[in-house]
Amino acid sequence: MKILVCISQAPDTTTKIAFSDNNTKFNTAGVTMIINPYDEWYALVRALELKEAGTASSVHLITVGKQDAEPVIRKALALGGDEAIRIDTESHDPYVVAAEIAAYAANEKYDLILCGKESIDYNNGVMGGMLAELLDMNYVGFATKLDLADSVATVSREIEGGEEIDKAPLPLVVSCQKGMAEARIPNMRGIMAARTKPLKVVAASGIAALSEIVSYDLPPVKTGVKMFAPEDMDGLVNALHSEAKVI
């Protein structure tokens, strides 16, 4: 069984966000990029667990990005991936990302494709579903558990008020979230081995984007807390009517 894990890079959560070019571009100067946590902690680690259990024979990694994405994909290799593919283009449009991955994966006969439920930068949560549609595969989104037996996946996912358990035949695309696996840290042996593992660069198909970013806006600056004395209930009520804003 071959597993493909989709890896994206995202700004470190401690990054101070800034924009350039009249707020039309994210300013990456001085920004540390990391593996998107949903891709790393849940999708990749679960794939590695399936390989360690003997269920999968190989775990391939794929990312859509320019050369600056290679340190991120190398870290994913250090965690235990067998080989990596970088599609040489950059886009913030989820359709382009899904279509480029689909164009590569269509002829590779992957049995299972895993991705994070969303990226922590744009939070679209749509790439997995698009990828499944483009590859004509079954799809289960926002999964918290995945087990495989006899080419059938049993997938658990949270729903409002409970849990849903689905069974689906392979090939299958699954987007993963918290509960799927426990985060790992690459060890020194894995880091050294990652330097020699295959990283194939593939030319992009040139697929046209369906959306574009018009501008970015930072959230409003937080204002100070206004305090009222316990006996000043009239002042509190007036402030709630005249000053409070619904967010």
What would your notes on this structure say?
This protein has helices at about 35-50, 70-80, 95-105, 125-135, 190-195, 235-240, and strands at about 1-5, 10, 20, 25, 35, 60-65, 85-90, 110-115, 140-150, 150-160, 160-170, 170-175, 200-205. The protein starts with a strand and ends in a 5-residue tail after the last helix. Helix content is about 25%, strand content about 30%. The chain has a single domain (about 1-215), classed as Rossmann fold, CATH 3.40.50. The protein is α/β, with parallel strands linked by helices and about 250 residues long.
Q: Which sheet architecture does the biggest sheet show? A: 9 strands, mixed
Strand order of the largest sheet: 11-10-9-12-8-1-6-7-13
| β-sheet strand percentage | 25-35%
Q: How many strand units?
A: 13
Which structural class is indicated by helix and strand composition? alpha/beta
Q: Which CATH architecture would you pick?
A: 3-Layer(aba) Sandwich
* CATH third-tier fold name: Rossmann fold
Low-confidence stretches: none
Question: What is the CATH homologous superfamily assignment?
Answer: HUPs
Share of helical residues: 25-40%
Outline type: globular
Would you state the CATH class? Alpha Beta
Taking Cα atoms only, what radius of gyration do you get, to the nearest Å? 21 Å
